[in-house]
Amino acid sequence: MSSPTLHPTVDEVTRRIVERSAAGRAAYLARVRAAAGTGPAARTDLGCANLAHGFAAAAPTEKVALRGRTKPNLAIVTSYNDMLSAHQPFADYPPLIKRAAVRAGGLAQVAGGVPAMCDGITQGRAGMQLSLYSRDVIAMSTAIALSHDMFDGAVLLGVCDKIVPGLLMGALSFGHLPTVFVPAGPMPSGLPNSEKARVRQLHAEGKATREQLLEAEAASYHSAGTCTFYGTANSNQLLMEVMGLHLPGASFVNPGTPLREALTRAASARAVAITRQGGEPTPVGELVDEKTVVNACVALLASGGSTNHTLHLVAIARAAGIALTWEDLSDLSAVVPTLCRIYPNGQADVNHFHAAGGIAYLVHTLLKAGYLHEDVQTIVGRGLSRYTQEPVLRGDDLTWEEGPKASLDRDVLRPADDPFAPDGGVKVLHGPLGTAVVKTSAVAAEHRVVTAPALVFDDQGDFLTAFAEGRLDGRDLVAVIRYQGPAANGMPELHKLTPALGVLQDRGQQVAIVTDGRMSGASGKVPAAIHVTPEAALGGPLSRVCDGDVITVDSVGGRLTVADEAALRSRPATGRAPEGAEFAGTGRELFAAFRATVGPADAGASVFPAFDLPTPEVPVAQHA
Predict the structure, then answer these.
(1) CA 100, chain centre distance (Å)
(2) Residues 383 and 511 in one domain
(3) Among 285, 322, 477, 590, which is least packed, fewest CB within 10 Å?
(4) What is the DSSP letter of 621?
(5) Are strands 389-394 and 397-402 parallel, antiparallel or unpaired?
(6) pLDDT tens digit string along 232-277?
(7) 395 and 480 assigned to the same domain
(8) CB-CB neighbours of 91 under 10 Å
(9) Which helix (H) or strand (E) holds 456?
(10) Which pLDDT value is given to residue 104?
């Protein structure tokens, strides 16, 4: 594919990221290159006792190879558990990867495991307060797994919300190692997501029983594999592919199929090939550069992906010494068209998207229109055009063929010159209440600007109680759910509020939500100004909002305002952040150090320091 002219905004955003990141990126790359050293293998410098510990449990033939210190050895880092449907398929991956590595001339060892929790299970529960922090725990767990200097490359097994970002952040701390992500794929389609959402809303209104609700949920989440709606988990998979960290076409092949197994074997062989000994050294810290990060942003926006990645992409970039900001995402969103309609932004699920042309067609049309950088490094070589190909199994032989050059279902996937919307549906809001992110791709035009009196809640449970008691009926309102930021209580996802808000909107009320918490990629049809920073627990303006303050959530003009700014500024903080005994139980007491040190949402809400990177840019005139 010839390289078209890059869109001027994509070019400009990339250039300013490069400029802004110069010192941090240089410091990061210097560390990566120093760690790479000059030896043929990481094990070269290990002492005899160290090395003996590293292969003590290996099979005799593996001991000989590890002792020789010349064959590349892959670290398998897995998020396997058999409770989560997305990660259950990984049970069988390590033996498969090991055999494939040996056939490719290498070795592989399971270096470690990382925790994998599910936001779907912990939604509305105390455990959700550990969810965002788990990303950084996963990054640290990945680093521990890779810390033994036994490895020449890494194979990372992860799918869901915090797991993939955490694995990548951890791998970037070992940026000299080539790294391949291996997905598990989505479960086959079950009950349509739109029907599941309908039953959820009926239950919120008291028109469906718990048994009916459970039946609908079980019919939707029904087998091994990723949930089929386009939330953070499937956004992760698409981003890893567009960043060149998956094999082309690997993301959305269902578990338990011959093609899925063939792709896993091929990923292992490719991981061997891109080690130094394999002849195509591709360190992950060099692969993930400014252009790769911009490509990830573009793909997220064009596909209508999860707003959680306004946190994760910033944190991933910073782990590679790159200063990505919300303004970069907002400016890209203004020009990158929406090309996908996948639930909750449409009726189709990810299996339907994959069948319609999937990532191969999405990359093709974005490259053709100049929205993606083609000249980037990937695990399969240089050039993103390799990701317009699809894997095909011919007997026992896995090959790649050019993917479709036209969408097979234009109700799900469209070309860049005939989009569903001219923008990417993510906007940054500024104003006296702080800076926030809003996703509008599933919000109807008539709901994109809401002005209404505030109803203020310091806990999501209080909002749900007010809804159940009818105190929210018959009035327009902006629900302010505060003290939910990263420093307050770990920034839990508040998706449990979505059905109730949807009921109010369907009754004809104008409603919106403003919160320093998260709503994820499934926030849906109600306008949600989320990730508000500075957060209430750190004295942000939301801490001074009172019931009745007239708030405007303007996702068209990019403003988050309050009618009486002077009154807001004159007040002391109202409400109270959780503290002390409120964090006892469900493991929350173990994360006090995280709550004390976590950074702001617009810097990725991470506990890790960055490499000489500037603080996020917020226009001075916009500060409260």
Answers:
(1) 29
(2) no
(3) 590
(4) G
(5) antiparallel
(6) 999 999 999 999 999 999 999 999 999 999 999 999 999 999 999 9
(7) no
(8) 13
(9) strand 449-457
(10) 97
CB 576 within 8 A of CB 483: yes
Are residues 386 and 483 located together in one domain of the fold?
A: no
Is residue 135 left, alpha or beta, with left meaning phi > 0 and alpha meaning psi from -120 to 50?
A: alpha
Task: Establish if 605 belongs to a structural domain.
Answer: no
Task: Report which of 182, 392, 151, 384 is spatially closest to residue 268, judged by C-alpha positions.
Answer: 182
Question: pLDDT band at residue 618, thresholds of 50, 70 and 90?
Answer: very low
For the chain, the 3-state helix, strand and coil shares in percent, each to the nearest 5, are 45, 15, 40
Number of structural domains (the chain) is 2
Mean pLDDT over 60-79 rounds to: 91
Same domain, 252 and 131: yes
73 sits in which H/E element: strand 73-78
**Model pLDDT for residues 185-216, shown as the tens digit of each residue:** 999 887 877 787 888 888 877 888 888 887 88
Is 227 flagged in the annotation as binding? yes
Give the integer Cα–Cα distance in Å for 256 and 249.
16
CB–CB of 388/402 below 8 Å? yes
**238 in the same domain as 168:** yes
Q: What average pLDDT score do residues 419-445 get? A: 93
Kindly report the backbone phi and psi dihedral angles of residue 532, in degrees, each rounded to the nearest multiple of 5, phi listed first: -60, 130
Residue, of 462 and 123, whose pLDDT is higher: 462
Domain end call among 369, 402, 435: 402
- Above 90 in pLDDT, residue 145? yes
Contacts for 98-104: CB closer than 8 Å, 24+ residues apart:
98/268, 99/265, 100/264, 100/265, 100/266, 100/268, 100/269, 101/74, 101/268, 101/269, 101/271, 101/272, 103/269, 104/268, 104/269, 104/272, 104/273, 104/278
Query: pTM for the full model?
Result: 0.94
Q: Is residue 155 part of a domain?
A: yes
Question: Distance between CA atoms of 59 and 49, rounded to whole angstroms?
Answer: 18
Q: How many CB atoms lie within 10 A of CB 445?
A: 8
Cβ count within 10 A of residue 536 = 31
373 with 482, same domain: the answer is: no
pLDDT mean over 106-125 = 92
* Mean pLDDT for all residues in the chain: 92
Read off the pLDDT of residues 352-364 as tens digits, 9 standing for 90 and up: 999 999 999 999 9
Segment (H or E) for 108: strand 107-113
- DSSP string of 178-235, one letter each residue: -EEEE---BPPP-S-HHHHHHHHHHHHTT-S-HHHHHHHHHHHS-SSSB-SSSSHHHH
Angle at 187 between CA 184 and CA 192, to 5 degrees: 150
Judge whether 590 lies within some domain. no
Q: Which residue has tokens 């409770």?
A: 83
**593 in any annotated domain:** no
- 475 and 396 within one domain: no
Residue with tokens 């195509």: 280
Least confident of 189-203, 297-311, 445-459: 189-203
**AA identity, residue 447:** H
Strand ranges in 258-347 using DSSP code E only, listed in sequence order:
none
| Residue type, position 441, single letter | S
Cα 200 vs. chain centroid, distance in angstroms? 25
The rounded percent of the chain whose pLDDT value lies above 90 is 77
Which structural domain range is residue 449 located in? 426-578
Tell me: pLDDT of 617 over 60. no
- Is residue 179 domain-shared with residue 258, that is, in the same domain? yes
